[in-house]
Amino acid sequence: MAPESYGEVTLIYAGFAIFNVFMAYGMETAFFRFYSKEGRKNSVVSTALISLTASSFLIALVVLLFKDALAGLLNIQPRFFSYVVIILVLDALAIIPFAWLRAMEKPTKYAIIKIVNVAINLGLNIFLLVLLPKLAADTESGLWNKIYVPDFEINYILIAIVIASAITLLLVGNIYTRQTFVFDAQLWKKMLRYALPVMIAGVAFTINEVFDRILLAELLPQDIAKAELGKYQACYKLALFMTLFATAFRLGIEPFFFKHANSSNPQKAYGQITNYFVILGSLILLTVVVFIDYVKLIIDAAYWEALYIVPIILLAGFCLGIYHNLSVWYKVTDRTHVGAIISCIGAVLTIVINIMLIPKIGYLASALATLAAYGSMMTISYFWGKRQYPIPYNMRKIGFYLITSILFSALVFYVFNRNILIGISFWLLFLALVYKLEGRELKNIFLSNESEHH
User: Fold this and answer.
1) What percent of the chain is predicted at pLDDT more than 90?
2) pLDDT at residue number 326
């Protein structure tokens, strides 16, 4: 796909991200809080399901009624909005079923269904975008010619998402058929009070995450805007290893935070978890930077000119992951408004830096704005939480791993121009430092696990 077309797809995905926040309105986090807190778990599940089902169809109706105005606002063509609405509803209906799997500690089933979703989406994209045009070209008439539509690539991408989302909902949707539905109005009000600050934080977080794409499309010269946006997004995707790690870690650890909130000394466990997250995140940051010339082969050479933003985006994703770990203090103490305030500060930074710098330095401004937003959110959460809910983080170790991995990554990428031998030397040195500082602790963990197994 040409950078211009990929830029169009990027804008549609930005629209998804913005609408998804309103479709979920913080109910997923509220579900976890009340599922672990309330004795009537069935009421929590059924109330959340009814709430999200009703609101999903209502929001979908509003979006369809005002699709032309919204399309203009988001710089998306109105003809794609029908697909967008279907996908939004399907994904919203799957929010609580997936949350329930996490709450019930069924990571294998959760992972399998998520992998099936990705496999179906990827398979359909390969078929519709790569194989189908070839099959249609090989035969002058027949089934493939009837199915294939030229210049229909963006539609094909959205059709693939619709099918993948529909199958995913079928796989998790049995909770709807076996659930005894009871709508507890009092419980719903309490959940909503907890959820709304989370939604505000979500809106601000989404601004941090995707609003730079909309600003790039608006502030760059129109003849190059979508091509530049496509290059930025493609290289942004190369940081997905950090995103996947941070997301998987958050999905697994969030239920643990709530479950152990009332134990005798949860703060110690929270501190250790963050320490391990920083070690692994530092290693991922350095690994991707060292092997970036192999990682870049995932995307077409037409996008490589934006490669220099990858270390910045990796570091921004790392800061975001640390922030999610630090955010435990306001979630377990029911101060979700704090998350909204912190995310809003990040959103203001994102908007201001992008507007000021995009006309001067293009998509580098968006990368720097992302790092500034997530770095500030991480820092504010740490110092605010230190006063309100002290957690014994080992800041000497955390600071050492963070600074060392950033320094090594900067040297490999920007000073030694991605020289693979020098990069591997730094990578091995970092592994040796981790082993020297954590070797005894890691041995104790693995030996205790092995003895428990026997």
Assistant:
1) 43
2) 86
